[in-house]
Amino acid sequence: MRTERNLTRRLDRVFARLDREPERPAHIDMPRMSRHRVVLFSATLAFYLAIVWAVVTTSWLVRLDWQVMFFRPYQQWPEIHAFLDYYVVLGQRGPTAVMVAAWLGWRSWRQHTVRPLLTLATSLLLLNATVGAAKIGMGRLGPHYATTIGSNEMGLGGDIFPSGHTANAVVTWGILAYLASTPRARRWLSALSAVTSLGVGLTTVYLGTHWLSDVLLGWAAGLLILLALPWFEPLIARTELWLFDLRDRWRTRRGGSEPAVPVTPVALRPLGTPAEQPAPAREPVSPTRASRGLAPLAPGPHTIRSERTPVTPAGSRRPPHADRVPRGTNQPARPLTGG
Questions:
Q1: How far is CA 84 from CA 96, 189, 201, in A?
Q2: N-to-C CA span, the chain
Q3: Residue 169 in contact with residue 200, Cβ under 8 Å?
Q4: pLDDT one-digit tens code per residue, 173-190
């Protein structure tokens, strides 16, 4: 019995959390561009530029790229190849965007706000614009298409620098931590997104699809987008207000296009009462009491008391008498007996 009660209580808690909140929660704060965040953004931007400069100048980082490529990790540990082939999907744009958008869509419906979805859309647009432009602008070839040993393979028409899988993993899973409503959830989700994106980046190096420097630049690119999101919060808020205003105007226009139906006031009456008859009194009166007080006042023929038999749901309380004759009729004379 105790186990069933505990299970019932847990299920009630789960369904209570799944219920839609009556209004938008007021305790959820929007991140602001604080001084600490500005410092982190500046440091990450400096790291980003340092990686680009190290690759462009063919420094020690490019030599490390070639050493890792010749090491061929996928041949050193072939037993984990099958697992990492599936794990790297956590960095692909399509599957991860669908999963995160489904979660944030449910959260938007529950909290009566579209800010989570707008924030995700903004981050993905920034990711496509910045990382896509860097890929096309630098045109670096990947390890499988390298032409000259020891070169940086820049400007040859490639599109792998920075790593899109890594940057997408940082942004897509990091947006969950960015939108967390409590500090504890934000810490746990930040750690989870960091581990996930780190694993995705190292998996691309293991599979030989990216240089190690590609992964480093992808981490920096994704982190820059997350750190810069507070600058776009006013735009997200204005877009949300515009969408709600557009929805209200559409509802008003849709409601105004329908023909108006005239409303006629109708007197309410209890169920089962005919329309032409007045509603009965609220307190029911017993048949005997009503017949005593109202019978002489009502017009029409009336029955005498002897003709009325009180009836209850169980039937008549008076036993039938065959020799009983209604009062007022001519009765036969009774024989007189002498005594």
A1: 16, 22, 11
A2: 85
A3: yes
A4: 999 999 988 888 889 999
